Each structure stands twice: as C-alpha cells, then as structure tokens.
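Dear support,

I submitted the protein below through the web form. The confirmation email said the job was done, but the results page showed an empty box. After a refresh the structure appeared. I'm attaching both so you can tell me whether what I see now is the final result or a partial one.
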Amino acid sequence: RAESLVYLPDKTTREFDALPGQFTSNPATVPPAVVGVAKLRPIFIVGMPRSGTTLVEGVLGAHSRVRACGERMVMRQIKREYLWLTAQSRPVTAEIQANFVRAYFDRLPEHSGADHITDKNPWNFDAVGLILAFFPDAHVIHVRRNPVETGLSIFSHELPKYQAFAQQLGHIGHFYGQYARLMRQWERLAGDRMTTIQYEEFAADFDRAAPALVRACGLDWEEECRYFQRSDRVIATLSAMQVRKPVMERTGRARRYERHLRPLVEALKS
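What the results page shows now:
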C-alpha cells in the first residue's frame, strides 16, 4: 500500500474489456514487411501462474526441433509499447510492426538444430490478440487449471509485489474471472491457432495427451518428450522442483483448506 501497489478490480475489468479491440487480430492484415522476418516458429504457452505452463514447456522442450526459452519478457515490452502508441493515436506502421517482431527474436538462447522456440511467460495471456497479428506462424497453448486450486497455489507462493491481486483471496478470484473471460474471446478469435489443455486431464492421461499436444504444434512425436524430466536445462520458476518429478495430477489440496477459501470461491462465483 505504501508503494501504491493496490489491486483495483474495476480498473482491471475495464482494461481487460478494452484489450480485444486494441489489438489487430486478423493475421491476414499483417503487413508484408512483418511476414518472413522470423526464422523460428514461436510457441507461446499462456495461462494463469501456477497452472502448469512449466510442465507443458518441459514436454515440448524435450523435442529435438524445439528450444525452450522459458519466461521471456520481450512480449510484455512489445505489448506496453504497442498500447502506448495506440493511446497516443500514433499509427503502428508496417515498419514499426517489423521492428517489434525483430526485437522479439533478438538475443535468443543458442538454438542449433531447432526451428521452434517456446515462450512460457504465462502473463502473455493478455497479449494473445497481438501475438496472432504479429506472428502469423505462431501457435498458442492455453493451459487451464481448476480455479480454486490455482488460486490457492497463487496465494501460498510469493509472486512479485507488482502482481497486487495475489495478496487477497477475493482479488485472486476476481482476477481469475477476468482472465477466463478474456481467454474465451481469444479462443473464439484464434480458432485452430490455439490449443487449450486442462492441466488435470493432461496429467491424468499423459500418455495420450502429451503426443496430442506435440502434434497440435505441428511436430511429430518423439519419445524424449515422454521423459522430459531427464533434461538438464535451467528452469528458473517456482515450479523448478516439480518439473523434475514424474507427471502427477496435483489436485485435492484446496479441500484441506476449504473453510479458509470462502472469499476466493465467492469471487469466482461472481
């Protein structure tokens, strides 16, 4: 509060309501200057934090044609600059769009042999419209998890203080509701360019769901994806320990705290 890092539900609702109209979302409108800039096909993994995005990137990152790049911040910067330009009524020209795309692919980790990259910054869920417009070849994977389990996990982990919603259960429920509403709009817009997976179902039926996910990204299945835990790549997220273990369905924790979670559940209902 002393730093004015306070969650404002009404402000969040207004901002999320405005997003679909602020982004150019029809890939056919992308200027020719942008097409062909990228040499790698990006796979954006989005969703709420603590929803299973690290697991999904682990599976894909074990593929010989995929370089897992973790939680990149570049798309967050592109989104902020794009919205600033539109707020100033300045045209986002083909040259500016091409520069945004070039900036995204700048300073990537070594990707020898790979022609796909993953970006698992979950917060990019609010920039899906921009992703669809700027990256015609991109595929978006939306990872969804039980909202009460997700909310409890967020509340019990220390997210950056700038995520002000994460400090109160009621605010977490409100934010989750706005995220879910926005994702429904993106799913209608994206069509087959987005794959939505339910974390619980993915973990429970991993032997079927993992190959289906790989194929949805336009890749052939490789057995190394099944044994992604063997990877020695660096994972710098709160899920770093979990992703080294066998896949398991992490459910039921919220039931043990049911009497404490009423503000979260009531906010989700509304």
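Response: this is the final, complete result; the empty box was a page-load delay. The first strand starts at residue 41 and ends at 47.
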